[in-house]
């Protein structure tokens, strides 16, 4: 795909698949069953790749809290219909990445405060170094060296580029 916004390669398709395997291995060693909640739309690609590697029973649901990449003060509405009961369940929230961590921290608090899960953890492909503290276990494959804005593999710019099969630095 050609776009003036796609810059230096950060994670190749091969590295992404290795990352999926790493996170799946971590989750497979921790869970016998769980409810997977995908953060949409960004977490769709990672979730699709990850759940096919999980060796335990899962139920799936989704949650949304739209935000602008790089916005650490996201206050948009959280949309969650609880299609699968979370009460007393091990819950894994899956997103493509934890960037500033602001949105994920809000989502974690929302689930903990309203749905009484047995446990709640996060699974992402990568995290950025200056993210906010989120007080639940985090399973990820890569820790980025910088807070550069990134695109591809679920990460958008201007609501585009989510379908780029690798992760690159954003060129504004």
UniProtKB/TrEMBL annotation:
GO terms for cellular component: cytosol. SUPFAM superfamilies: PRTase-like. Keywords: Glycosyltransferase, Transferase. Residues 19-132 form the Phosphoribosyltransferase domain. GO terms for biological process: GMP salvage; guanine salvage; hypoxanthine metabolic process; IMP salvage. It catalyses: GMP + diphosphate = guanine + 5-phospho-alpha-D-ribose 1-diphosphate; IMP + diphosphate = hypoxanthine + 5-phospho-alpha-D-ribose 1-diphosphate. GO terms for molecular function: hypoxanthine phosphoribosyltransferase activity; magnesium ion binding. Pfam families: Pribosyltran. InterPro entries: HGPRT, PRTase-like, PRTase_dom. The keyword Metal-binding does not apply. Transmembrane segments: none annotated. This is Hypoxanthine phosphoribosyltransferase.
């Amino acid at each position: 795909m050609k776009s003036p916004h796609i810059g230096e390669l950060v994670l190749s398709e091969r590295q992404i698949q290795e990352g999926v395997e790493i996170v799946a291995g971590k989750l497979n060693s921790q869970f016998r069953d769980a409810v997977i909640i995908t953060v949409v739309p960004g977490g769709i690609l990672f979730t699709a790749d990850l759940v096919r590697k999980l060796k335990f029973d899962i139920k799936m649901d989704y949650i949304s809290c739209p935000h602008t990449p790089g916005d650490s003060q996201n206050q948009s509405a959280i949309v969650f219909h609880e299609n699968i009961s979370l009460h007393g369940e091990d819950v894994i929230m899956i997103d493509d990445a934890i960037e500033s961590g602001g949105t994920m921290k809000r989502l974690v608090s929302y689930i903990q405060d309203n749905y009484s899960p047995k446990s709640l953890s996060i699974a992402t492909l990568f995290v950025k170094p200056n993210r906010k503290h989120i007080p639940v276990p985090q399973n990820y494959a890569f820790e980025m060296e910088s807070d550069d804005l990134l695109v591809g593999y679920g990460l958008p710019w201007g609501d585009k580029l989510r379908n780029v099969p690798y992760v690159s630095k954003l060129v504004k």
